[in-house]
Design brief:
With about 625 residues, this protein is α/β, with parallel strands linked by helices. Helix content is about 45%, strand content about 15%. The strands form five sheets. Strands 10-9-8-11-12-13-18-22-21 form a nine-stranded mixed sheet, sandwiched between helices. It has a seven-stranded mixed sheet with strand order 3-4-2-1-5-6-7, with helices on both faces. Helix 4 packs antiparallel against helix 5 and helix 16 crosses helix 21. The longest helix has 25 residues. The radius of gyration is 35 Å and the shape is elongated.
């Protein structure tokens, strides 16, 4: 029956502005009659002409007032405190006009013996009945407001975001949530009621509340919560039986600042292992990017694609995206064009090792800023593909940097890695050589800048997506060593700091990003298993497979000799270079590249790299085999 009534109401909605005032005419006449009955205890015949006169004079005034206050324009189903206040205002003004009317027409025959208390009674009935009708419609459409069905939700955080979330749950037609209670560590909020939902305890009471109130889901509605706070909350949540836990992201991620049900998402490992939000200087970054022709190599990769997203937001005059992989390039090209339709985008399939192809790109598009993210990054793969690592990571950088200098690029920003420090892998050693080359070439016309950081969460081939896949398929999580540690940073944060480093770089620097404290990969794995609602070691085993070739247990961001110099940004430092660089160094690098092009053996590549990066400790040296110099 409720469904049929709803259909009738929905069909009549197109005539709402006629039907509602017409219906309220009947209600207002009834209110006037009821006011007389309540005042007199009965309706004497001598008051009938008076009621008829007032119906013809004051009821139209009431309808006009309600129209002027736009009470017939606002949907009854979304009635809120605002509409109730408007009803109160309209009713109050009508009471004043009713009083004025009774004074003006007091000498008319029909108004003799007019009971003035009828004005107050009419005011009260008008406010109560009009407000009640509107609230009744809202309750009809949103049964969750009157305790209907839905997932029983416990909300952590009784602040502004929590209040907005409850309001959305109570008013959205798509809501399948029933907010049952709040928890908040602020003692002053305990016992208070927010939109009909009580703040019952702090986070430590979550297990008891879940059990006592039959909670189906927990939503953390504290946009300002730090990772440490979230870990503390999750510790309490894990003591309960609830597996479905979601979070409301920071309001900085919600463009309107208004909370909607669509903003709720699952808690990720980045939420728990992340750091405080990065503060970047937008004006400084915009000053060297806005209106410029920007080229990004490796544009389809994890870092490269995020670079393109953030660069597009600064409205460059053109964004030239270069990648050797057509599929990756296709997707980032489509995404940028959809989200930033005013930014001219040029997708180009090219290999950074191809001097002719890259030269044509620089000649045709004349980039002013270059971000060089193209590189082979997987450590174990590069140990068995040394030739490709040298050609792509060193020769590719050399060609791109050479063309940047030739075609007067203003800034060249190179994406480096913490694996370049005291490298134990070919990948790390090649990145260190590329850093050194750029320091050799830096000049006043083209500023070469390197930015060194650790692992980024969710990048392709990193542990997070691998662990997710293993958990999804119910397979054991594989970790090389129980003591393995890595510096971890979100892709978004890493790219923000890269852009910031580009803004403050003068040329020749190797910037080091503050990566915070290293995270044990074992702790990361356990956290991800728990986030999936499973128990580490019980539901998902953790297996140690042994350290792979070229891997370190602990990564470094600096050599012992380097040290750092502070910059104006609290999370960016400059590594003090100690390498003996110059024309001789460049010649040695060119010798390595020439030899590698001619299918040099792995042993000789290692010897070359050892000469170029004295701190490089390859597997063979660490095992006591040694290498001879080839220079």
């Amino acid at each position: 029956m409720r469904k049929n009534i709803g259909l009738i109401i929905d069909k009549g909605r197109r005539y709402k502005r006629i039907l509602v005032p017409s219906g309220e005419v009947i209600f207002f006449v009834g209110i006037l009659v009821l006011s007389y009955w309540l005042r007199l205890g009965s309706l004497d015949e001598r008051y009938v002409p008076q009621i008829a006169f007032l119906t013809a004079t004051v009821v139209p005034i009431k309808i006009i007032l309600f129209w002027l206050f736009r009470l017939y324009h606002i949907s009854f189903r979304f009635t809120s405190l605002y509409e109730i206040i408007e009803v109160l205002k309209a009713s109050s003004i009508f009471a004043l006009l009713f009083s004025l009317t009774s004074l003006v027409f007091k000498d008319i025959h029909y108004m003799h013996g007019f009971p003035r208390s009828v004005i107050f009674i009419d005011f009260m009935l008008t406010f109560i009945i009009s407000s009640g009708l509107r609230l009744a419609f809202r309750l009809f459409y949103f049964p969750q407001l009157r305790g209907g069905k839905g997932r029983r939700v416990l909300i952590v955080g009784a602040g502004a975001a929590g209040e907005q979330l409850v309001r959305e749950m109570q008013t959205s037609p798509l809501s399948n949530y029933k907010p049952v209670a709040f928890v908040d560590d602020d003692m002053s909020k305990r016992g208070s009621i927010i939109r009909g939902v009580r703040v019952v305890n702090g986070k430590e009471g979550i297990p008891e509340i879940v059990k006592g109130m039959g909670i189906d889901e927990i939503i953390v509605a504290i946009p300002s919560a730090s990772p440490a706070q979230l870990r503390s909350i999750m510790g309490c949540v894990r003591e309960s039986e609830v597996k479905n836990v979601k979070i409301l992201p920071g309001l900085s991620h919600i463009l309107t600042g208004k909370v909607t049900l669509g903003d709720i998402r699952g808690i990720t490992v980045e939420d728990l292992l992340g750091r405080e939000p990065v503060k970047i200087e937008l004006e400084k970054i915009a000053s060297y990017l806005t209106g410029k022709r920007i080229l990004v190599t490796g544009a389809g990769g994890s870092i490269g694609s995020e670079l393109c997203r953030q660069l597009a937001s600064f409205t460059p005059s053109s964004l030239i995206m270069v990648d050797i992989g057509e599929t990756e390039l296709f997707y980032i090209d489509r995404e940028i064009k959809e989200k930033f339709d005013r930014v001219p985008v040029v997708p180009i399939i090219s290999d950074v090792k191809d001097m002719i192809s890259m030269g044509n790109i620089f000649l045709r598009y004349s980039p002013q800023v270059v971000f060089h993210a193209a590189a082979y990054k997987h450590v174990p793969l590069m140990e068995t593909n040394m030739r490709e690592a040298v050609l792509n990571n060193i020769e590719g950088t050399r060609i791109t940097a050479h063309l940047s200098a030739k075609y007067n690029v203003e800034k060249f920003i190179f994406i480096s890695t913490d694996k370049a420090i005291n490298p134990t892998s070919v990948m790390g050693a090649t990145k260190r050589v590329a850093e050194n080359l750029l320091r050799c070439w830096d000049n006043e016309k083209c500023r070469f800048i390197s930015v060194r950081f650790g692992n980024v969460l969710e990048s392709r081939g990193s542990v997070v997506p691998i662990f997710k896949e293993q958990i999804k398929n119910g397979r054991p999580i594989t970790i090389t060593h129980p003591e393995m540690e890595r510096y971890l940073m979100s892709i978004t944060e890493a790219v923000q700091l890269v852009l910031q480093a580009g803004a403050i770089g003068k040329g020749g620097e190797v910037f080091v990003l503050d990566m915070g404290k290293p995270v044990k990969i074992l702790d990361l794995a356990r956290e991800m298993i728990r986030l999936s609602g499973l128990e580490p070691g019980k539901d998902i085993p953790i297996v140690f497979t042994g350290k792979r070739p070229g891997e370190k247990l602990f990564e470094e961001l600096l050599t012992a000799e380097e040290g750092t110099l502070a910059t104006k940004h609290e999370k960016i430092f400059i590594a003090r270079g100690t390498d003996n660089l110059g024309a001789e160094y460049i010649k040695k690098v060119e010798s390595l590249i020439d030899a590698t092009r001619n299918s040099i053996e792995n042993e000789n590549i290692i010897a070359f790299l050892k000469e170029l990066v004295p701190t490089y400790q390859p597997e063979s040296i660490r095992n006591g085999k040694g290498n001879g110099s080839v220079f």
